[in-house]
């Protein structure tokens, strides 16, 4: 039917559909979790759960992803809802960078992808914890610029809040209503980001980039770009990384595995909806520097 289209366009369409089909279940899950947080998580409960000490709160956020796993495709709605409900920003972003990596499913897939070896799974998890501690500490002690956009600050659906003390049926309905609204609001950014990512995968001269293996630092930077442009889900990216191991070596593949779940095109578009542009640029720059240094020294 579409044989009249250029091969590159057909290839782009195939990649686009594969990313969307892979990502949508996780985005929907993230939005449903966001709906549950909207209905059941109150600021009072947050204050009881989290420690008052900022550094301890960052540690809690860093480890929370193991017990409350989420793919990076759906992480932005969750942390946005966290912050609306009074979770400190340093805790929310520590959770954001570790949850898609220390997710047990991701750790297991990484273990399988690299020939039943724990090496890359452990290096990946360790890298995410280091990034989380640095990002959380920067937000807690140094960042002074606003993070959440004004129109999202303190936003709540009063009809949802009124349902909290009503029947379980009403609460479940409220979760679904809020989750679906969030899904359609966030989904458009997923589509735009995926369209850009698929276009870059087809038209970016990756063969030229793959030839830049003479320098370790250049190889790491190339892999950061590939991780960003390929925009793979963290459950699947380890298999791509393992296929590139012979070309790039351990350091650059670890950079790919750590950076990809934290920053990719579709995730960036969803962050753009919720967070200030200046903060996003600072966040990406700091993550890039920390991941590069980590990959160099391991």
Tell me what the structure shows:
The protein is 76% helix and 0% strand. It has 16 helices and no strands. The longest helix is centred in the middle third of the chain and has 36 residues, at 168-203. Residues 157-164 have low confidence and may be disordered. It is mainly α and 298 residues long.
Could you give the topology of this structure?
Layout: H1 7-40, H2 43-49, H3 54-67, H4 75-84, H5 89-102, H6 104-113, H7 119-141, H8 158-163, H9 168-203, H10 206-210, H11 216-230, H12 237-243, H13 245-248, H14 250-259, H15 265-274, H16 277-297
Helix pairs in contact: 1-4, 1-9, 3-5, 3-7, 4-5, 4-15, 5-7, 6-7, 6-12, 7-14, 7-16, 9-15, 11-14, 11-16, 12-14, 14-16
Number of strands: 0
Main sheet summary = none
Strand content: under 5%
Look at the structure and give the mean pLDDT: 82
Number of H- or I-type helical stretches? 16
Radius of gyration: 19 Å
Shape: globular
Ends: how far apart?
50 Å
**Portion in helices:** over 70%
The low-pLDDT segments are 157-164
Structural class: mainly alpha
Helix/strand order: HHHHHHHHHHHHHHHH
Considering the chains and any ligands shown, give keywords for the structure:
mainly alpha; 298 residues; 16 helices
Compose a concise summary of this entry.
With 298 residues, this protein is mainly α. The protein is built from 16 helices and no strands. The chain has helices at residues 7-40, 43-49, 54-67, 75-84, 89-102, 104-113, 119-141, 158-163, 168-203, 206-210, 216-230, 237-243, 245-248, 250-259, 265-274, 277-297.
């Amino acid at each position: 039917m579409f044989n009249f289209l250029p091969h590159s366009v057909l290839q782009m369409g195939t990649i686009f559909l594969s990313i969307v089909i892979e990502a949508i279940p996780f985005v929907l899950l993230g939005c449903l979790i966001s709906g549950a947080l909207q209905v059941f998580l109150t600021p009072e409960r947050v204050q009881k759960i989290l420690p008052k000490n900022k550094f301890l709160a960052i540690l809690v956020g860093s480890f929370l992803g193991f017990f409350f796993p989420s793919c990076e495709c759906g992480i932005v709605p969750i942390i946005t809802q966290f912050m609306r409900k009074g979770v400190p920003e340093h805790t929310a972003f520590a959770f954001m960078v570790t949850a898609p990596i220390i997710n047990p499913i991701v750790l297991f897939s990484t273990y399988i992808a690299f020939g039943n070896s724990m090496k890359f799974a452990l290096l990946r998890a360790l890298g995410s914890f280091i990034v989380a501690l640095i990002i959380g500490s920067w937000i807690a002690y140094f960042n002074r610029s606003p993070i959440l956009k004004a129109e999202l600050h303190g936003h709540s659906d009063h009809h949802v809040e009124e349902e909290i003390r009503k029947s379980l049926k009403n609460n479940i309905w409220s979760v679904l209503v809020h989750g679906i609204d969030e899904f359609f609001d966030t989904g458009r950014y997923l589509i735009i980001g995926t369209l850009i990512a698929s276009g870059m995968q087809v038209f970016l001269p990756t063969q030229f980039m793959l030839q830049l293996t003479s320098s370790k630092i250049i190889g790491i930077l190339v892999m950061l770009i590939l991780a960003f442009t390929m925009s793979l889900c963290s459950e699947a990216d380890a298999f791509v990384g393992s296929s590139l191991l012979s070309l790039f070596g351990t350091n650059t593949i670890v950079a790919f595995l750590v950076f990809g779940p934290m920053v990719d095109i579709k995730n960036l578009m969803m962050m753009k909806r919720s967070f200030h542009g200046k903060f996003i640029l600072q966040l990406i720059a700091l993550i890039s520097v920390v991941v590069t240094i980590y990959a160099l020294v391991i």
